[in-house]
Each structure stands twice: as structure tokens, then as C-alpha cells.
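Worked example 4.2. Below are the chains of a multi-component assembly; read each line carefully before continuing.
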Amino acid sequence: MALRVRLHHDAFDPLAALAAWQRHLELELELDPSSPPEPSRQRAAAEAHFIGRVRGINAAGEPLDALELEHYPGMTEAQIEHLAAAVSARHGLIHALVEHRVGRALPGEALVLVAVGADRRGPAQRGCQELLEALKHEAPFWKREWIGSSGRWIEGNTPL
Amino acid sequence: MTGPLQHGQIRVRLFAALRERAGWSERSIALTPGQPHPTASDLWWQLELGGTAAKDDGALPASLRVAINQAFASLDQPLQAGDELAFLPPISGG
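Applying the procedure described above to all two chains together yields the following C-alpha cells:
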């Protein structure tokens, strides 16, 4: 199973990240000498992608200036890898990519990209959703909403 | 950045709202020779991370989670010298 986890301290383009990941997967397939490729190296027939962005308005309806994401360096990356491996095993995923923003982000900027590949649409879509929900609840990130110079830590997540 | 731990110490780290409420992000705690090793729960009260609530009056926050050596752990797991203990407020990722 191919897996990549990246944290971005600055704004990132999720579509460029996705394209780079797909080029990487294609290159891996070209370099694979086994024919047919190992099951874990097959080209995925189904892909599911999710991009989450910083919302411009908070739950109270107030316009936000920024969202800050704190994380636990080391544990965050390890925990996402652990979660991705578990979800991939459960759904038979062929590959999984998680890219996540940390630091201060502006409304509209990408916060998270989750992209998975599987042999069929069901496992791909379910695996993508499950991995997203897992990292929202089980990877050590904390959000703080900023309105002007006032910051407020958010406890928990928005409803699914 | 984190400095080296002295022999017989554990490192305690706080994040996000817990860090700001306590006013510190990291401390080294010396284990007492001959005494039972403390748990995360013990240190929560010892370091007064629950604010002014006394141990007999207050309960640990239901949402509190801890990590030992960067993996989720039980609040009741005895800590060992060299461990890194982190108190984690409610997670909000994604």
C-alpha cells in the first residue's frame, strides 16, 4: 500500500498536491518490474478525494479572519500514518494520501486533502470518509478561530 | 525546542487551550526514588492542571486524553523515567 502523509506550514494547492501524488504513483508502476504488478502496486480503478477548506464564518455566524491549527509534531504524523494504514487494511485500499495544513490559515485556503485509491468505488468512498473522520478525531490537531485579535479554541468538530 | 532530560525525569507537555490556561508548555518532573511511579492522572492534580478544583472535589475532564511517548495511553498507566507525557485537550482536526 502506497502512503504519503505531509504537513504544510504554509498555504498549499491541494490540486497540485494531488497531481504530484498521481505522477508519483504512475512512476512507481512504471518502475515495478513484476508483471502483473503486485496487488499493492496495482493501478486503482476507483479514487475518492476530499478537500477541506477554512470556513469564512464560524458556528455562531461570525466572520472569521483566520484559523490557527496547532499540532503535536511527531505524534501527528505518526498517528495519521497509523490511521491510514488501519483504514487501508480495512477497506483494501491501494494507496492513500493525507496532506494537512498547520499554523495560521486564511478563509478559503486548503486545510486537508485526503485521497485514496481502491479497486471499486465503494471501498474508495468509504475509505476516504473513514480516514477523514479518523484524522478529525484521532490525530492531535487543535483549531483556534481568530476574529481580529481575539482567538478562541474550538472543542470538537462540526457535524458530519 | 525540547532539551535533554536528566536521569530519572519525565517530560510533561501541554497543548492548545491547556497550555494557555496553565501558562507553560513543557516541564521536566523528577521521579521520587522509592516512591510509586506517578500516572498521568496523578500529575494532572500535582501540577494543578485542573485549575483550582481540589482532587477530592473535582473530576478529571471527561474529554481529557493523554499520550505517552507520542502514543495515546491510559490516564492510569504508571510513567517511567525518560517518558514524554502529553495532556491533550479535545482534538479538532481536518
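Take a moment to check your reading of the output against the notes. The mean pLDDT of chain A is 93. The radius of gyration of chain A is 17 Å.
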